[in-house]
């Protein structure tokens, strides 16, 4: 049985006050015991988030990382630094990193390996643009992004990842893939993973990321191949994020 994971991605938003508010609220509620929760906060808030969530089950994660362990790389942050600041997970290959910062499949793979080397859990993000969907290339694009990473990993490494499917056309737009659309892509990803190993496919957690909100989370999470969510804007509102976490239980 795959344990659901709800991961909030704050992107370049939030404040220390919001970190503390989330910490207080999550300390006062009982989360479903069969659900894991993580918040991917901006780099400057990692240590504060670790302290704020110290009395809760919420894991702290980062939003990206360098593909190198150290060096003259002004502005970059290494996997070891993230671990030292308390991160347990890290997003890799988010569509905004791919489109705004030019991270191609090779760059994504290098970052996945850097995360694995420091015992961080990579949340590999994959997804298609609206133009690619309208051209009926969704599976070719999404599965190609999966294979670009999984082809280069060994069996043990593959089992340490989480995959988040995020249709680019639904991120921050208010548009959401229908439960049927999302399920179809998740099923295709699981089928792709089965070509490596049936156990890998059966155990891999697949998250949906694309304008998941409190009012649509339950229907999305009810799909057989959707094992959680990568939540954007709604993760900045404590009541909304709590509602999504509760709906996953």
TrEMBL record:
Q: Which UniProt keywords apply?
A: Cytoplasm, Gluconeogenesis, Glycolysis, Isomerase
What does the record give as EC number?
5.3.1.1
Of the GO CC terms on this record, one is: cytosol
The record ties this protein, via SUPFAM superfamilies, to: Triosephosphate isomerase (TIM)
* Major place of residence: cytoplasm
GO function term, MF aspect, one = triose-phosphate isomerase activity
CDD domains of this UniProt entry?
A: TIM
What is its subcellular localisation?
A: Cytoplasm
Question: Where's the active site on this chain?
Answer: 94 (electrophile), 166 (proton acceptor)
- BP GO annotations: gluconeogenesis; glyceraldehyde-3-phosphate biosynthetic process; glycerol catabolic process; glycolytic process
Q: Which reaction does it catalyse?
A: D-glyceraldehyde 3-phosphate = dihydroxyacetone phosphate
What InterPro entries does UniProt report for this protein, alphabetically?
Aldolase_TIM, TIM_sf, TrioseP_Isoase_bac/euk, Triosephosphate_isomerase, Triosephosphate_isomerase_AS
- At the top level, the lineage of the source is Bacteria
Q: Where does substrate bind?
A: 9-11, 172, 211, 232-233
What Pfam family is a match, any one? Answer: TIM
> Which pathway does UniProt place it in?
Carbohydrate degradation; glycolysis; D-glyceraldehyde 3-phosphate from glycerone phosphate: step 1/1; Carbohydrate biosynthesis; gluconeogenesis; Carbohydrate metabolism; erythritol degradation
Please give the function described in this protein's UniProt entry.
Involved in the gluconeogenesis. Catalyzes stereospecifically the conversion of dihydroxyacetone phosphate (DHAP) to D-glyceraldehyde-3-phosphate (G3P).
User: Quaternary state and partners of this protein?
Assistant: Homodimer.
The protein's matches in NCBIfam families, at most eight in alphabetical order, are given as: tim (TIGR00419)
Listed PANTHER family: TRIOSEPHOSPHATE ISOMERASE (PTHR21139)
Family of the protein in this entry:
Belongs to the triosephosphate isomerase family.
User: What is this protein's record name?
Assistant: Triosephosphate isomerase
Question: In which organism is this protein found?
Answer: Halomonas daqiaonensis
- The gene it comes from is tpiA
């Amino acid at each position: 049985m795959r344990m659901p994971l709800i991961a909030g991605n704050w992107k370049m938003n939030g404040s220390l006050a919001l970190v503390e508010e989330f910490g207080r609220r999550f300390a006062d509620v009982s989360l479903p015991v069969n659900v894991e929760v993580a918040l991917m906060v901006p780099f400057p808030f990692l240590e504060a988030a670790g302290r704020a969530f110290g009395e809760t089950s919420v894991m702290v994660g980062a939003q990206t990382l360098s593909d190198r362990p150290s060096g003259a790389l002004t502005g970059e942050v290494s996997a070891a630094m993230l671990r030292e600041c308390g991160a347990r997970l890290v997003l890799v290959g988010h569509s905004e990193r791919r489109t705004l910062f030019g991270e191609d499949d090779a760059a994504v793979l290098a970052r996945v390996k850097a995360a694995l080397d420091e015992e961080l859990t990579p949340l590999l993000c994959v997804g298609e643009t609206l133009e690619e969907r309208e051209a009926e290339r969704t599976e070719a694009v999404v599965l190609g992004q999966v294979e670009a990473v999984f082809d280069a990993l060994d069996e043990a490494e593959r089992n340490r990842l989480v995959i988040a499917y995020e249709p680019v056309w639904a991120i921050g737009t208010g548009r959401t893939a229908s439960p049927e659309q999302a399920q179809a892509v998740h099923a295709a990803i699981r089928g792709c993973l089965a070509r490596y190993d049936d156990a890998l496919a059966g155990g891999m957690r697949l998250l949906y990321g694309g304008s998941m909100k409190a009012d649509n989370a339950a229907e999305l999470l009810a799909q057989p191949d959707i094992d959680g969510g990568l939540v954007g804007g709604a993760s900045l509102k404590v009541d909304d994020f709590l509602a999504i976490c509760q709906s996953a239980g």
